[in-house]
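Pair request: fold both.
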Amino acid sequence: MDPLAIDRTHLWHPYTSIAAPQPVHRVREAEGIWLTLDDGTRMIDAMSSWWCAAHGHRHPRLVAALEAQLHSLPHVMFGGLTHDAAIGLAARLVALLPPGLDRIFCCDSGSVSVEVALKMAVQAQHARGARGRSRFATVRGGYHGDTWSAMSLCDPVTGMHGHFGAALAVQHFTPAPPVAFGADWPEDPAENGLGAVAALFEEKGPEIAGFILEPVVQGAGGMRFYHPAFLRGLRALCDRHGVILIFDEIATGFGRTGRMFAMEHAGVTPDILCLGKALTGGMMSLAVTVASTALAAEISAGDPGVLMHGPTFMANPLACAAACASLDLLAEADWQGAVARIGAQLADELAPARDLPGVADVRTLGAIGVIEMRAPLDSARVHGFCRKAGVWLRPFGRLLYTMPPFVTGPEDVSRITAAMVAIAREAT
């Protein structure tokens, strides 16, 4: 039977209908920035396979780390046991993170990392005696994953999970941060978005356990870049009202915005940090939820005295080994220079799209480039164009975007930007 026929008959791809399945490319091999299809066609992975393959595919150092770990300890439960791959990962992460963020809980995926962060916040509030604090607040335009509680914190109107309606927990939303990255920062809270947060905390503070948001870059909720000063003001408000601050850096961590972590643009440290995606360089699924020592101590001193979560594949040695090797590559490479070079080229070469009548905005930050259209793109048409252009792009709604691997050279970045502008022109 034709493999693609089996795919259409039995596999259910993300965000698709089996009644009208979207076309798929059958990938035979991936190496560096390239995806090789079943007929030999090659496409640049301009998506870093949903943000994660920062070093490109099948980097020899990452492959070697996995092979070495595979021959000694592929997996062992983490309850009551530990291993060198997890210990090494913890040491590397603590060295990268701000002081105080040093209690690391390993998770299966980014969405699970968010779920764990929410559990941490509720348990910490209960340990403080604030048992009424069980809801969460966030800004509109955000995205935090597809698991149940994470869905409740995605934008309820424009987000992809709004149709679940009353089945999701009721959370509190404030407007998306209104001041763009690089714009002048107005001190008036009514203009900079912090006034709405302050009003919410004044009214609903006693029921809010934590405030979660993506620092500086709102990813799948709209690919928006906002002013870092919002985070500084939010940190102060959370401290004043006893609200636990959670940063979701699953998409932005490990260099994508030009800083190792997006929160560094603001110089702000959260109480809880979620990391994933590029953590393993795209080799394995792994995420971590990192808590401050103070918050971890509060949870441990409360009832029941333990964090109530424990995935079967927590701290899987293969994933931890890949993460250690990926972090070593970041430590040794000039990723800052690569991201700056890619970012400058994206800004320059995507700029002509601003003149197209169908384009609403063009924006870049770090190694992220976005063309926002005035109307939704036809994904099937873009899909076919990508094969011909040799560039893999996957738009959603009105957004056409790229986040290429950091190893993408200038000629290949130009190939990506040319494809994006051509898609925008064709859709106009």
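--- second member of the pair ---
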Amino acid sequence: MKTNKRKGVFSMTTKVQKWGNSLGVRIPQRVAERFDIENGSELELSVDEKGIILKPVVEDPTLEELLDQITEDNRHEEIDFGKSEGNELL
């Protein structure tokens, strides 16, 4: 395995290995940790004329996950926008 470091870029070579009927590439631990990839993580595989790109799938948080982050410290007061001017529900 060879590494190449340039400003803001980390690249390396690794070997492709047989995995069942497919081929697999190992992701080094420090790269996996940097992108929060663990066993079972989903990766998006893109192919273009230049090569193969793997990116972690970032899922949107659920409403429940967002609501769980509300605390007394980050909760704001009710905002009064004035009286109704159209067909708003009261």
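Observation on the second member. The helical segments are 29-34, 63-68.
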